[in-house]
Design brief:
about 5% strand, two-stranded antiparallel ribbon, 25 helices, alpha/beta, about 525 residues, 2 domains, 5-stranded mixed β-sheet
């Protein structure tokens, strides 16, 4: 849901109309119906994936698909330089890829080459692995819980709009929790190990959950079951240890997730009670209260709720979609371990069916609804990819290109001027051509300290200074689509080498707006005058 102020809120209220507001009031009843219909139609549309060519479809939603080029860039670098290598194509150049200790090669490869198939199949596996509770609870009770989860706005969002490679790790969580609950410690250890092969986030979140269970049961067994997965993840740090880079990598990570504010240049202003966080904390708390009423204190769901709140308000150790999956999985495990109860099933329906608009399943102003889940089909990014490749064609391999953004004024949320979704595609294309496009997120991490060299500024003087500092042969400047270029660039000797106007590509985005500004941006690639490396 948008958080852009009263003007947007007024437009949204006008756009919804009477039907939209009636749906919003009745959303607990209507959401499962709309989602079930959207699931069936989206699955039918996804038959396109049966033809192969999975690399053409990074997702089902333009925002998710284009953002996921972030992960394609990572895999490209792993392929070219290896996990122990230095990459000239990310960060400030000569970036140690050993710092990507949080990535696994298996999930990076699968998601980079089959993004849409990965999230869809991973979500289906996550839902269906709750059937492992059949040996604990009755078949009818397990079937009802699984059906509620499958046709929920949460599951639909994970399959079609929100998830990334981490779903390959989260899908093992139902099996791990059921094994822990029944004391099958070998199976639990294997499930955690399988999760560690594709996601460090899952194991990181599992530590406090298993610690809480160990405390509750007065037994270290839940923690022992995590040991193989923890050992496997420790091995990720070996390249950094060998390179003597462990302290720097961990320090950069701690700064980016908000674990420390010491010497940090880019401060997070979003670590506060935003409407998104307040809403999810509220419905998750309501679900826990209903469980408490029905069966007593829901210990582990409350621990999961605390982790969700910590992630949203204090330390961003995981993406929002990851902590959503974590909480829902823990809640489902608790419900499945209970005797059948309509109140427990109602509680589960509440936590799994947040308003679809909060999960990007519809847009108030475009779709005139907060509830009607929109059908998603595989999004073919190929035309956009080819367009950006033509845009970068004039830049020879081995060169550097500076993307001119406003100074974020030391605020993390201001980085890239709100174009975070759009920048991942050119970053991937540049890297695939052997070109360093900066700044990227790794350059931000490398300069996230007080007194760091500057790479920001859109004015002519700032760009001239930055192109010299960073030895850039070209610069990308932008303005609103339909606006004439600023003649001062030509007068200063910059030569236009390419244009990519997002206004001319709106038809490729399924009517979805991916920029905060009123008009789409137009990028201009300019050759730097008197460039000399």
């Amino acid at each position: 849901m948008s958080e852009r102020g009263p003007g947007t809120a007024a437009r949204m209220a006008a756009a919804l109309g009477a039907r939209g507001w009636i749906e919003a009031v009745l959303y607990p009843l209507l959401t499962p119906v709309y989602v079930a219909w959207a699931w069936l139609r989206s699955l039918w549309a996804a038959r396109e994936l049966l033809r192969g060519r999975w690399s053409r479809y990074q997702g089902f939603h333009p925002l998710n698909a284009l953002t996921s080029f972030f992960y394609k860039t990572q895999w490209l670098n792993f392929e070219r330089f290896g996990r122990w290598g230095l990459s000239p194509l990310v960060g400030l150049g000569d970036y140690p890829l050993s710092r990507w200790f949080h990535l696994t090669l298996l999930s990076s490869c699968l998601y980079a080459n089959a993004g849409a198939a990965t999230t869809l199949l991973g979500t289906l596996a996550w839902v269906l692995l709750h059937l492992t509770w059949l040996h604990v609870a009755g078949a009818g009770w397990v079937a009802m819980v699984v059906l509620v989860l499958w046709f929920s706005s949460t599951a639909f969002a994970m399959a079609f709009t929100r998830q990334n490679y981490n779903i390959l790790g989260w899908l093992w969580l139902p099996l791990a929790l059921s094994a822990v609950a029944t004391g099958q410690w070998t199976l639990a250890a294997l499930a955690w190990l399988a999760a560690s092969l594709t996601s460090i986030t899952v194991v990181f979140a599992a530590v406090p959950l298993m610690l809480a269970l160990a405390w509750q049961a007065d037994s270290p067994a839940p923690l022992w079951a995590l040991l193989p997965a923890l050992i496997k993840l420790v091995l990720h740090c070996v390249p950094m240890l060998m390179a003597g880079d462990l302290r720097t990598a961990l320090g950069n990570m701690a700064k980016m997730i908000g674990l420390t504010a010491r010497g940090v240049r880019y401060r997070r202003s979003s670590m506060r009670l935003r409407p998104f966080s307040a809403y999810f904390i509220s419905i998750y708390a309501i679900g826990c209260a209903l469980l408490w009423q029905a069966h007593g204190l829901p210990f582990l769901p409350l621990v999961a709720l605390l982790l969700f709140a910590l992630n949203q308000l204090l330390v961003r150790f995981a993406d929002e979609q990851s902590v959503i999956v974590m909480f829902v999985s823990v809640f489902a495990a608790h419900v499945l371990a209970l005797p059948p109860s309509w109140l427990a099933l109602l509680a589960f329906a509440v936590v799994t069916n947040p308003l679809p608009v909060f999960l990007g399943l519809c847009a108030a102003e475009r779709d005139r609804t907060l509830v009607r889940t929109q059908v998603r089909r595989p999004f073919d990014h190929t035309p956009l990819l080819l367009g950006v490749e033509r845009f970068f064609a004039p830049v020879p391999a081995g060169q550097r290109v500076l993307f001119a953004f406003e100074d974020p004024q030391d605020l993390y949320e201001n980085i890239f001027d709100g174009y975070r979704t759009l920048i991942e595609l050119p970053l991937f294309v540049a890297a695939s051509r052997g070109v360093l496009l900066l700044p990227d997120w790794y350059a931000v991490a490398e300069t996230n300290y007080l007194g760091a060299p500057n790479c920001w500024g859109r004015s002519l003087s700032a760009v001239l200074a930055n192109t010299k500092t960073w030895r850039a042969s070209h610069v990308i400047v932008y303005h609103d689509s339909g606006q004439a270029p600023d003649p001062s660039w030509a007068r200063a000797g910059f030569i236009e080498a390419g244009v990519f106007d997002w206004g001319e590509w709106r038809h490729e985005l399924d009517g979805i707006t991916l920029w905060r500004s009123a008009k789409p941006p137009c990028w201009r690639l300019l050759a730097v005058p008197d460039y000399g490396p």
